[in-house]
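Hello,

Following up on my earlier ticket. Below are the two sequence lines again, exactly as submitted.
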Amino acid sequence: MPIDSREVARIAVLAKLEISEQDSQRFALQFQQILDYFTQLENIPTTDIQPTYHALETQPLETPLREDQADDSLSAEDVMANAPSSVENQFRVPKVIE
Amino acid sequence: MNALHVFSIKQLRNAIKRREVSFREIADSFLHRITEVDSKLHSFLTIDAESALAQADELDKRRSQGDLRLGLMTGIPLAIKDNIITKGLRTTCASRILENYIPPYDATVVRKLRNEKSLLVGKTNCDEFAMGSSTENSGFRPTHNPWDLDRVPGGSSGGSAAAVAARLVPGALGSDTGGSIRQPAAFCGTVGLKPTYGRLSRYGLVAFGSSLDQIGPIANSVRDVATILQVLAGWDRRDSTSAHRPVDNYVAEIGKDVFDLKLGVPAEWFGSGLDPVVENAVKSALNQLEGLGCKLEEVHLPHTEYAIATYYIIAPAEASSNLARYDGVKYGHRTSSHQTLQEMYRNTRSEGFGEEVKRRIMIGTYVLSSGYYDAYFLKASKVRTLIKQDYLDAFEKVDVLVGPTTPSLPFRLGEKTQDPLKMYLSDVYTVTANLAGIPGLSMPCSFSEEGLPIGLQLLGPHFQEGRLLRLAHALETELALEFPSLVV
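Thanks for your patience. The regenerated structure is below:
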């Protein structure tokens, strides 16, 4: 499917980005080139091939477990220190319920 | 003692052991060099002279009291790529969206270096969120190559590689998702190692492509790289992807013989697109390796041509998911122009992210989106299996794969910024190690006529970092490269 500025706008909504009309045309052109380049993968037969999501799947993998005991963690003040807006150790966001 | 900055980590350690220098002199020397030179390179985003000097004074005091055990990195100045978090020290990922972010805790690798009493002098520039191959995508300013200021240092760990090459620090940490340690190491004439996926903890590395990311060292010699790796490697209960297996003695590999090694030369790496200057330098290094008694054999990695497409589907897909956390709520930039929550998300992200990051988030969102997932992301994940299998098959026959790190010499600033695909293609030899999870090392093997470094890449089977370091050190000794003069 060809990528036009409308398709770029659709993706931008999903990605929670605002793309200006001017940027949108340039992005469309670049996406088209990049997606065209991706089409070479279509030629590779992969019917019986399992996908790889973890590079070391062929190595024995284990998830070490620990005792279920309380451990130190960051203080609420430390966690909140970088918040752009907060009240009483809670993140403040714009009103979401009308 | 004002020329201390040219010392390697090994030389510094020896001088410290013999009490020929104080920690203060070491810190002063490197900080002075940074002040003198970095206005031309822009390799640092944040310099923490105060902490480094205080730490050095503390070490001198403890030593005079006979209360200091010397570790592998005690008193050694190091720089940390700015996508690895440092408690109390600004960490930006070279992004405007994290311009004022002060981490509340240390990455595990940083904690390990602090335990060793390294002098952490600052945070290095990189492509924004490590997305790029030239450090031109930094949200603040590009870094310049110390061998030619008109050229890029490579990326994304360009600040770390440039700082090490220019002797602003004797070692630095980088991160490598598709070549971001090895390619800048090659462009700057330094040694860089991407360890096996899981060999060291990524706790505190700001996530880009979680199935690909690794932290690794950059230094001016193979031995120094081995020494830093020795400190960093190991399982971490805070990183579920770190490997629960013992750490080899990497430093002990330095100086061992290599005549028993069988080296594979992938035919696919010497096709069109490879600059003849790089090709000749690599072939000459291969001859030297043969002279050391290694056996050379041509091997095939038949899916090499699909590596870039596979990588540039998987990495942006993972990035689009990982970067969803930058929403202006918990930390980082928040837009001042918004009415609704959704508008706040959109405007925050649009103001905070640079163009390449937006491009990758959007490519990633697209290839994961309904109706396209199977054709792009699932397909690429299956091709990834084939690429990985190529490597596993090759390592049945040979011990190490050897070839170029990059297809070209360091390119000029601005040369590829208008054409994202062209920039992506410069990662052709490095992305496969991340897709397969194997370790890779880049080391300088020659300089071009105009004095630009050329990198040689060594790839090994999972967890065989020691073998790569052993081979690299033998070649480094054999080559005894004469470096041209730095332009800074």
